[in-house]
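Exercise 3.2. Students should predict the tertiary structure of the chain below and write it as structure tokens, then compare their answer with the key that follows.

Predict this chain's 3D structure.
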Amino acid sequence: MELLFSGFQAMSIWEYAAVAFSLAYVLLAVRQSLWCWPAAFVSTLIYTILFWQGALLLESALNFYYLLMAFYGWWQWIGGGNASGVERKIESWSRARHLKWIASGVVLALLLGFVADKYTIAKLAYLDAFTTVFAVMTTYFVTQKVLENWLYWIVIDLASIFLYWQLEYYPSVVLFGLYTLIAIKGYRDWREQYLQDLRLEQASYA
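Answer key:
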């Protein structure tokens, strides 16, 4: 507990702001609120600057990707990716489609993990590569309102908890514990909405 409290005390006001907007993003995404994307933008903007100033260039580049995805997610959710221009609804992908994405993600994570483990001083390189690759991939799923994105986040968050615990980033352990609980609720809420929309669509054809 002492290490946990000292970790929180070491955080700057900007880090607290980034965490607050990150939590707001996830909670608003659960509610399918468009405001989740502005929250994501602010959070990732802060993290991009903080990591750049701390010379964590890859982490900064990753958050810059999230920054761009905040714009893309907003555009997708308001119907920018649909020919009809209507607001995007939750969709569920087939098992075969998910398996293709998972296989591609695993291969890429293994390659990145190998490079990081062999040529850098990275700790837990393979686990770090796994969480990074699948977080990038799953963020895209969120922009498409894929129901199963929350299942991916649950696995990613649990893996991240282990990663941060091993590295003694205890505030991050707490944060990702909250993310895990929110992801479970997100899947339940989105699944309920998806099934409701599916019943309404089937009734319209009856």
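Discussion points: The longest helix spans residues 170-205. The two ends are 59 Å apart (CA to CA).
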